[in-house]
Design brief:
The protein is an all-alpha fold. The protein contains ten helices and no strands. The protein has helices spanning 15-26, 32-39, 43-51, 67-82, 89-102, 114-123, 138-148, 160-164, 193-201, 224-230. Helix 1 runs antiparallel to helix 2. The longest helix has 16 residues, at 67-82. The radius of gyration is 38 Å and the shape is elongated. This is HTH psq-type domain-containing protein.
Length: 231
């Protein structure tokens, strides 16, 4: 298949024209629409320069960070991953932007750094693994819940028909009716003086009572005289 190449067009404005246009807009001498038509500058470029999201460095520009600074940033990201911290593209930008500003790099505060982060991920794709968000669709988890016999009240995962009763695929004989089970609340027991007296008279049961003892050891008894003798 023959490839078709598109000729790159030259800009109809110079760098001085762009600076003069931005100066006129900031000083409220000209409107944006009139300035774009007068200097032959696309409106989106003017908006990006006013917002500070584009620096105008051009294509094939020099990287913002040096190889040493970039390697240090990547080492920090890998360390976060070893600490079981999920790293996303937004987290990488959140780490990189203050680092660039601290180093005095030409980065605007409102810059998104999306293009830079994509280039960084492509360059260090073997070392950095970003966490991806997976959107659960209706068919992904409603079927699994139905197979397990679980019907959560989730309008995205189960319809109204599934909430009314179990599916026909489940065995009715395997289901247990717990309507007759009576649940009684368990209150915390408090120890009173009468309980202490009863516990003193009760026989002591140890885990070794079921073991056959030698004849030299007397078996325990509940006789009151012997209880008084011991206590």
């Amino acid at each position: 298949m023959v490839r078709t190449y598109k000729r790159k067009t030259q800009d109809k404005y110079s760098k001085d024209d762009l600076e003069q246009a931005l100066s006129n807009i900031r000083n409220k001498k000209m409107f944006i629409k009139y300035t774009a038509a007068h200097y032959h500058i696309p409106t989106r470029i003017i908006f990006h320069r006013l917002a500070g999201s584009r620096t105008g460095a051009g294509r094939c520009r020099k990287n913002i960070l040096t190889n040493e600074d970039e390697s240090y940033l990547v080492t920090t990201i890998i360390l976060f991953q070893k600490w079981q911290c999920s790293i996303s593209s937004s987290a990488v930008i959140g780490l990189a932007k203050p680092y660039m500003i601290q180093l005095g790099k030409p980065v605007a505060l409102k810059s998104t750094l999306r293009d830079w982060s994509q280039g960084l991920m492509q360059l260090w794709s073997k070392e950095i693994k970003l966490a991806k968000t997976v959107k659960l669709e209706k068919g992904h988890y409603s079927g699994d819940f139905a197979k397990a016999g679980i019907y959560p009240y989730e309008p995205r995962g189960a319809s109204n028909e599934k909430l009314l009763g179990p599916s026909s695929s489940n065995d009715e004989s395997a289901s247990v009716d717990d309507s007759a089970v009576i649940h009684k609340p368990v209150n915390r027991l408090t120890r009173s003086t009468s309980c202490e007296q009863l516990s003193a008279m009760a026989p002591v049961i140890s885990p070794i009572d079921h073991i056959r003892m030698p004849s030299t050891i007397l078996p325990m008894t509940t006789d009151s005289s012997r209880v008084d003798h011991f206590f």
